Amino acid sequence: MQPLRKAQETRRAFDRVRRSTCGNCPCGCGVKVFLRGDSMVDIFGDEEHPANKGSFCPKGLLEYRHLGNPDRLRWPLLRESVSQPFRRASWDEAIRFVAARLREVERQWGRDACSVYAAPASSFGHLLGGTVFAGGFGTPNGPWRFLPHHRAEGGSVAGMFGVNAASLLTNTPRDWCNSRCIIVYGCDPAATDPMAIGPIIDARDRGAAVVVIDTRTTMTAIKSSYALRARPGTLSVALRGILRLLFDEERIDREFIAEATDGVQALRQELEAYAPGDVARRCGIAEKDLRKIADVIGSAYPVQVVTGGWLGMEEMGEDDLRLCASLVCLRGSIGIPGGGPNLLNATPFDPSQWLERGGRALSGGAAVSLSEALLARGSDCGAWFFEGDPVARMAGGTAALEALSAAPLVVALGSYASLTTNRAHVVFPMASWLESDGLLAAGNGRSLQWHSRILAPPGECSTPIDFWADLAEQFDFAATLPWRGAQRDERNRAAAQWALQRNPLTSALSVEALDPERNPPGGVLWPCVDPAEIAFEDSRYIRGDVRGRNILFQRNSVYPLTERRFPTPDGLISLCGPQPREFTGTASGPESGELLLVASVPVDHVESYSGRISDRAAAEAFVTLHLHPRTAAAAGLAEGDHAVIENSQGKLRGRVRLTDTVDPQVVWCIPVPGAASSDNTLQSPWSLYPPSREPGVRAAFARVSLRAFRNSEALDP
């Protein structure tokens, strides 16, 4: 019997309805687009889609505002120097300009000076097109180089499970209601991926304990059963304290550990140095709270951990991920309903696997962050290609920005003026997911989905696949593009089909099988290596509402394309790992003169739109500095005052908001969409972050000082 669902219908006049998949965050919600002629008159969530069941969040609704936004970029912009104003150019002229300048960079510094940057939030088209271009061009600095190291085969999670962290979402959200305890670690899905909080709240309402472990009182924490707010930089210490208590109080599943894991004694020995009292002191929490959280987790079965995401994964260290996965293993909650380590924004694709082995493609060295790469090259930083607005979340402050400003070629693929376009020589306007075909390859449900072109893009807006294909045509390797033979309006489909067939874990899939207008909504779960798996799971224990297998690593089952339950050399999960590099801060509060900065994004932030489509008034276009009243009083600040936070990276001005939801030694900064983009000051809290101590991972906090702002003082760094 199908559950009753309220039909989502508009009151506006329309003549047809098209179905697609929202591309504004990794939730992958189904949408219904109401059209009249060639224009969209309304957009609703699709009540038939299993992810959102008709709901639609602020991120998705921004698409309606985006399509008609007068600030949207519609034509390529070009300039010889960043000191000059942009001029409008044609797409072909801009492509020729980029190709000519890229050849100049190659002649002066070599092909290694070309860098194609990508982040966990990057679109599938940019990852695929940028990787294939970088491989053909012959640079080792393709998208794979800038993704966090733990997303690749060499990460600690891959050493544990034989599956890298980018692919470790073992239990789909529709199964989470079977959990008795959900630990949300270091991420805030209620703000970053609003629909992802639905299954968590559903599980809570069915009796599960929702435990949030974070450095902030987040939107998710407000909805949780229990919240543990640790000092920034000490989350992994708190997690070690919890694991130590699980061992001490015999709350571990010895049968599962003996059957499926290796290295438990090494893990136990590692935890000896983490006595509960010492952990509580270092984390700035009460020991009784630490023990309470351990008791809640230790009393529940099954348990799962939700972490990562398109924002949090960049700040997750190898040790955090290993400990989260170890916690689930200790509770024996692998391969069963309601269990598992579930890392949001999961994908079956590793960009480095798209390289043509034996050709000019180079794998490159260790993963690096954007600021690390810029500071390493200095004034010889060559050519850079960006999608969206990564500069807004780049660490390194003025030094990194100055290095980028010295680059002879910066190309931005985006939809709005941003901190990245401010430093670009060429800007290419991008079509939205309603204006193009495309594969949604990373998500929170372990499903692959498709979005179709429903509306014509304005001006010369196009897709990353088109950009990379057109640029490749200017070079001698264009004939090697896997989708070169496709017509322009078929490139995205051909590129996606090539990627699906090339990946062993998706080889049974096709674009046609994912199209929501030809198939049941929700896409298909991966791994999918046999056409017979493109069906709804219907077993004694699980009835799926998305085609494919819901739970990975089930007992008496082998991982696809292997002969073992876990695709590791010995078929076991390895619990031992490297010793961590830990936070050693000594700041004790505002009286010390030093605060710990943590940054986040507002709930309506869309990465590809740079957060610039808010309807907030210009007078409100400032970053907000959330301070504890005691901290503000010590600095002589009141609600609504302007203040400056600064460190060796630079200075940032913001408006004070008083709240007791932050620790007195913490300033929580949220950049407001629409904030001024003058280059005289830093506009991003992440700019104050130092270069990371772990390769390829952005630091989770920064040390800053706070003072009141005087209108007469200059903020020029």
Keywords:
N-terminal domain of TfIIb, Barwin-like endoglucanases, 717 residues, 21 helices, alpha/beta
Describe it for me?
There is one protein chain. 26% of the residues lie in helices and 18% in strands. The strands form seven sheets. A six-stranded mixed sheet has the order 5-4-15-14-13-6. A six-stranded mixed β-barrel has the order 22-26-23-25-24-27. Strand 2 and strand 3 form a beta hairpin. 57% of the residues are buried. Among the domains are: 1-70, ADC-like domains (N-terminal domain of TfIIb, Single Sheet); 169-345, Dimethylsulfoxide Reductase, domain 2; 590-708, Beta Barrel (Barwin-like endoglucanases), CATH 2.40.40. With 717 residues, the chain is of the alpha/beta class. Helix 9 packs parallel to helix 15. Mean pLDDT is 89; it is low at 580-591 and 674-680. The protein starts with 15 loop residues before the first strand and ends in a 9-residue tail after the last strand.
Q: How big is the Rg?
A: 25 Å
Overall average residue pLDDT: 89
Strand content: 15-25%
What is the fourth-level CATH superfamily of the domain at 169-345?
A: Dimethylsulfoxide Reductase, domain 2
Global structural class:
alpha/beta
Task: Profile the largest sheet.
Answer: 6 strands, mixed
Given as residue ranges, the uncertain stretches (5+ residues, pLDDT < 50) are 580-591, 674-680
Overall body shape: globular
Compute the separation of the termini in Å. 64 Å
Q: Please state how the strands of the largest beta sheet are arranged side by side.
A: 5-4-15-14-13-6
Kindly report the CATH topology of the domain at 169-345: Dimethylsulfoxide Reductase, domain 2
CATH class of the domain at 169-345: Alpha Beta
The count of DSSP E runs of length 2 or more, i.e. the number of strands, is 27
CATH architecture of the domain at 169-345: 3-Layer(aba) Sandwich
Oligomer: single chain
